[in-house]
Amino acid sequence: xxxxxxxxxxxxxxxxxxxxxxxxxxxEVQVVDHIRCFMDISADQPSVHYKDRExxxxxxxxxxxxxxxxxTFYGTAVVRQFEMMGVxxxxxxxxxxxxxxxxxxxxxxxxxxxxxxxxxxANSPDDIGGLIREVGGAPxxxxxxxxxxxxxxxxxxxxxxxxSVIQAFMGVKSNILIQEFIKEAGGxxxxxxxxxxxxxxxxxxxxxxxxxxxxxxxxxxxxxxxxTPAERTTAVKAAKAMGLNICGVDMLxxxxxxxxxxxxxxxxxxxxxxxxxxxxxxxxxxxIEKNAKPNRTxxxxxx
Length: 303
What we know:
By secondary structure, the chain is α+β, with helices and mostly antiparallel strands. The protein is built from 9 helices and 16 strands. It has 3 domains: 96 residues, Rossmann fold; 63 residues, Dna Ligase, domain 1, CATH 3.30.1490; 104 residues, ATP-grasp fold, B domain (D-amino Acid Aminotransferase, Chain A, domain 1, 2-Layer Sandwich), CATH 3.30.470.20. The strands form 4 sheets. Strands 14-13-12-15-16 form a 5-stranded antiparallel β-sheet, with helices on both faces. Strands 2-1-6-7 form a 4-stranded parallel β-sheet, with helices on both faces. Helix 1 crosses helix 9 and helix 2 runs antiparallel to helix 3.
């Protein structure tokens, strides 16, 4: 099988591991920088151009998108072009954009009955009091909709602090979500790695001293964790709500059960492979072997 990995840097751990796993299983693999691609959008033979090459529907049987948050618009356009060409994309363009939009993803999870922290959203500074009230008051969490890897996430420990931060973000026209603070989580969250319809690995991430964000990029630590049946069910349900075949589902353990914070369409492999000692990259390639067929795009441009 010929597989393309859409990634801006072939030296990244996740990209490199996927290349290794594909080659070990006898596949041809090429890393394609999606930002360097341009597209020929035609009715008879759509194609993707990369540097001095032209890719048509016969060049790849599968595409693994590794689209960074800063280039979501262009990256998903490239994924969509491969979909138009009939190439199997392990995560579809519509699903990636759903997951990247924090507000939309929370609304979709809520509609599907997936547990989430109480979340509020508003546009006017006149509604700040109502926002704070809806999430149960301070302490509370303020999240930039455009933030990634814990950047743009603020814990406001008092009402005054919350009002000041929300006013500041609104003052510069930044879109934010306000969420309840889950104190019983104790600065830890769980990353579930979902492939297809099952959780193949999970780790608990814990924030360093003096920090509440548990992201590994923020200095958090990770260890193997045993999931409850409810946590497994919640992770798979969240992935399906987004329409993602491969994703990381981040959740908190609360007194009322697992609460999903985010669904990541391009989850990193380094932390979870090291914490769990599992060959996650190999499992992804195995999933593609079983499911990659031409013209299998489910959404067919909807959404």
